[in-house]
Amino acid sequence: MGSSSENADGTPEVIVLIRSKEDNTENFKKFYEVVNGETIGSFSKESFAGPFFSQYKKDFKVRAKKTVDISVDVGIICAAKEDHEVNSMRKAARLTTEIFKEVYKSNLMETIDADKKIRHVKMSALLEDSLKDQRKLLGIDPQHVEPCFTPIIQSGGNYNLKYSAQSDKEYIHFGTIICYLGIRYKNYCSNMARTMFVNPTEKQKQVYTTVTDCMDHIMEKMTPGTIISSLYDDAKAFLKKSTNPELAEKIGKNIGFGMGIVFRESALVISPKCEETLKKGMVFNVNLAFPDLTNSEGKDEKSKKYAISLAETILVQDGPVVNLTAANRRKTKNVSIYIKEASDDEDSDDNLGAMPETTSRGRGMRQTSLASNKRDHDSSESRRKLNQEKLHDQLNQEAKERILENKDGKKEEKRKKTNVSYKNSKRVQNHHFPIEREIKDGKIFIDKKYETLIIPFFGMATPFHISTLKNCSSSIEGDYTYLRLNFFVPGSAISVTKSNTDGPYPDSAVEGSFMKEVTFRAPGQTGAATNLNNAFRVLKELQKKFRAREAEAKERAGIVTQDKLVLNQNRGAPKLKDLYMRPSISQKRMQGYLEAHTNGFRYTAQRGDKVDILYMNIKHSIFQPCDKEMIMVVHFHLKNGIMIGKKRHIDVQFYIEVGEITTDINRTSNLRDRDDLYAEQQEREQRHRLKTAFKNFMEKVTHLTRDMDFDLPFRDLGFSGVPHRSTCLLQPTSSALVNVTEWPAFIVSLDDVDFVHFERVSFSLKNFDMVVIYKDYARKVSSITSIPMTSLDAIKEWLNSSDIRYTEGVQSLNWGKVLKTVLDDPEGFFNQGGWDFLKADDSASESEDDGEDENFKADTQTGSDDDDDDDDDDSDSYASETEPDSGSDDQSLGSSEEEGMDWDELEKEAEREDRGRSNYEDEDRSGNKKRKGDSYGNSSKKQRRR
């Protein structure tokens, strides 16, 4: 039996009291009328400053209520994180690893390399100050970022392995250096700890390896249902059986704790006393700390005493756990720094063993290298190749299984109903054959109601539906007026370039007889000529309306019915004003406002037009700030298209201009002109004001929806290219590759990408092309052309970090034919190696004439796919690419004959040689001959420049 304070579904009733700015005595009275028990739960360790809290404590003291601390119970309830909480902790961990690598590790390397002196507290301050620098925060707003604790730096034998420790004012000792770094993102915590060794001894490396192995062992045991105390026991048992059993006695009283909004959940400490069980969604800080270790081989007193601390942020889930701070690798080679004195002889160099060649920097007296960084230049490519090989092994198998599964479960396409003007020539209900006078007189008649053209054919009135009419033309030649009608027939272009569902004839009609063209002639200035002119005019109007209606119906065919928008009656609903929308609702550009409601957004234009976008239909929500841009954009990439006007769109964006889009070039300016300085100041203030408004809007939306987050493009990872018709900056986000400042927008969702292929990759070229192949092979590929060659390595690194397979080659492929071949015979394609022919190692062989993918080379006369900016179906695009080209055989024969020179050319060449001309022209001619067979389609001038 539910209590009176519960709702019908058993959930507690929530009563909201509006706080008064002056006196809250009445609110406290109402509060205690509902909460009338003798004991009240509270967070005893929490204390706040302010008049409201002071009044609350005073009122509570008068009522003499008993309190009990519920911090532990609430912590256990909130331990399993929701998806949006996990995403925040992932970002926090990513920031932690980024700051550790780019700030701490780089500064430490520079300090050691230059033999500088820097205090522990100074290094700690550098780390804390970096959290205010947006350039180091991966594009994340610094307002959402703060440290969990003041970063802790320790070295020189003086170690306090607690999170309450403070960095002292001693200088960093180049021996064993420990760093604790924890960062919050939107109040959610992350933490990591690393121990760096300078010239470690073999014993130190052996001990550290045991610690990392113990960490791996603990992570393997962290599965849902495991009792937390067993993790501590397993860790201690592992250390006792290791090659360094003395570590089991030095391990701390606990080896970690649960994390969330609270940095340390006291109820989830990994210790022998905790009997709670692990659950999916819990996040732990696993910390292995070993103080008071001795190094008998230390060169000084500070080096003879050291400690090891290793901490990771671990997410528990079904199956293996996820190490959120794994980006900073913890193996011995990744935390070892080697110093070689310049005065050392070759024998001392040999003692370094596996230490790779170092690079002299700083003062030149010392050479320093981190084991992982020493080989970065040479091994970054090898690491990418290893990961790419692993991804390639999965690519063929997963693609084959995916295609066969889709092929088996593929539903039969719904065929379009054939247009029928009249069922027969008699007067039947709902299909009346007209009996107008023009028909009896043998003239052309247009039935607008049934959209039918009726023409006299051998004295018989013959109807043709407007869908069968391809085009019509009217002309006057001499004393006669001509009307020419061209009809679609089976086997014509419409049947080749479009599917049968779009054609005017069913498959069964192929065996019938059809009229392809008919011409009518009438003497000028007669009633018959007037009839032809009127028929031409009406046909054009009717054909235009029919095609517009068919195009709109085709757009609506793929529309998924959406739920209705539930309006938020609260006046404080998040709102952005003075926004433009793309695509535009009307021909004239107009402003409007965007509101966030219960289950979606609503954009309302000035004249009252409305566009609704539901939260559940949004696949990517992107915020493009106005930094180095003239507009600020909120962009939504949708899962299912919506109708705006008469077209279907999956990309909708709202933007505001923050600067002058146009500039008066005739206007003279002066650096000291007060008006110009004032205008610049006004623009800066406007940018700041608008940026703040947009960020407040997004924060309110995130709080309202709880699971929606806006992605910010990473400008530092951006590269220029041509996805449509103009060059723009393409920027990665956490889940997509985007450009939202130009229109149409370009969005590639990384979850939909199967692999990426780089075309025209050659040292002799300045640019290359990037082709994105989607997991749905029936979908048209996305091409980005004219990417600078200098961006290739950065793009590869980004794709590799996103676990996306990439290949490269010098050829440009006809991807329509390639993917059609795969879909027609997937088993045969993958049994012959699948995508192995695209491997980068084979790029040299692809440039030769005997390459196995000769049939897939792109036609040099065809333009890039990027020039096609329409919304045609993918099947249409592939069909058009595979359309047989009449005369293609003749062209190929002609090109082969042109490879040699005829007699006239030979005679001219002989004359030039006789005249004693230089060999320059001969070489140029041979170059021209070679370029005739070039499959790239580049001009000879471009070839010479490159």
Automatic annotation (TrEMBL):
This is FACT complex subunit. Residues 444-603 form the FACT complex subunit SPT16 middle domain. Component of the FACT complex. It is found in: Nucleus; Chromosome. Residues 413-425 have a biased composition (Basic residues). Residues 719-809 form the Histone chaperone RTT106/FACT complex subunit SPT16-like middle domain. Component of the FACT complex, a general chromatin factor that acts to reorganize nucleosomes. The FACT complex is involved in multiple processes that require DNA as a template such as mRNA elongation, DNA replication and DNA repair. During transcription elongation the FACT complex acts as a histone chaperone that both destabilizes and restores nucleosomal structure. Residues 843-853, 864-888, 896-908 have a biased composition (Acidic residues). The keyword rRNA processing does not apply. One of its GO terms (cellular component) is FACT complex. Residues 343-425, 840-946 are annotated as: Disordered. Belongs to the peptidase M24 family. SPT16 subfamily. Keywords: Chromosome, Coiled coil, DNA damage, DNA repair, DNA replication, Nucleus, Transcription, Transcription regulation. It comes from Oikopleura dioica (Tunicate). One of its GO terms (biological process) is DNA repair. Its main location: nucleus. One of its GO terms (molecular function) is nucleosome binding. Gene3D superfamilies: 2.30.29.150, Creatinase/methionine aminopeptidase superfamily, Creatinase/prolidase N-terminal domain, FACT complex subunit Spt16p/Cdc68p, Pleckstrin-homology domain (PH domain)/Phosphotyrosine-binding domain (PTB). Residues 357-372 have a biased composition (Polar residues). The keyword Zinc does not apply. Residues 373-412, 909-920 have a biased composition (Basic and acidic residues).
